[in-house]
């Protein structure tokens, strides 16, 4: 990997950790902040994720594990509430790079996509429907809201991404690093149970 790509990734990683930016916006802002041309080749998300891990180990080693546990516990709460929709946790909270500024991303695989919205309405959740990039780069509906994280004593963004049940088949293929890209309720419970005290 060339030096410029590493520098962009490191700058983006700092923004991800310190400002809670998602990888895409962080990479674009890093290029702009570094005074590089807008068409500069961006590092892949895997490169940025490695840089985020390094940054967290260097600057947040004392606080990040507790913050990650708090976010995973909140994610599990929402997964249990929405269990009928086969929820799977993804993103930085699943992969272990999340900090208190990170949002929670839960993919749900529904027989009837509208039923997920009805479930939130029944719980009186004030959500916003948005469209985000899905599993395979296609647009997918997300139900986004803010939820109090008791352990952090602050609100966290939660995004429930609504997929058809058929999409579950390809959703658990391992990524380029051989990792499962998301986990179900049982997997998240194991993460919480196996975490160091």
Structure characterization notes:
By secondary structure, the protein is α+β, with helices and mostly antiparallel strands. The chain folds into 2 domains: 3-59, no CATH class; 64-194, Beta Polymerase, domain 2. Helices cover 46% and strands 19% of the residues. It has 8 helices and 5 strands, in the order ααααβαβαβββαα. The chain has a 5-stranded mixed sheet. A hairpin with a 5-residue loop joins β3 and β4 (139-149). The radius of gyration is 17 Å and the shape is globular. The termini are far apart.
Record the SSE blueprint.
Layout: H1 3-19, H2 23-33, H3 45-59, H4 64-81, E1 88-90, H5 91-95, E2 104-110, H6 113-122, E3 128-133, E4 139-149, E5 154-164, H7 168-171, H8 185-194
Parallel strand pairs: 2-5
Antiparallel strand pairs: 1-2, 3-4, 4-5
- The number of E-state strands comes to 5
Beta percentage is: 15-25%
* Termini separation: 36 Å
| Largest β sheet strand count, sense and barrel closure | 5 strands, mixed
Per DSSP, the total helix count is: 8
Unreliable spans are none
Radius of gyration: 17 Å
The SSE order reads HHHHEHEHEEEHH
Query: What would you say the CATH architecture of the largest domain is?
Result: 2-Layer Sandwich
Order of strands side by side in the largest beta sheet? 1-2-5-4-3
Structural class: alpha+beta
What is the averaged pLDDT score? Answer: 91
Helix content: 40-55%
CATH class of the largest domain: Alpha Beta
Number of domains: 2
Coarse morphology: globular
What is the CATH topology descriptor of the largest domain?
A: Beta Polymerase, domain 2
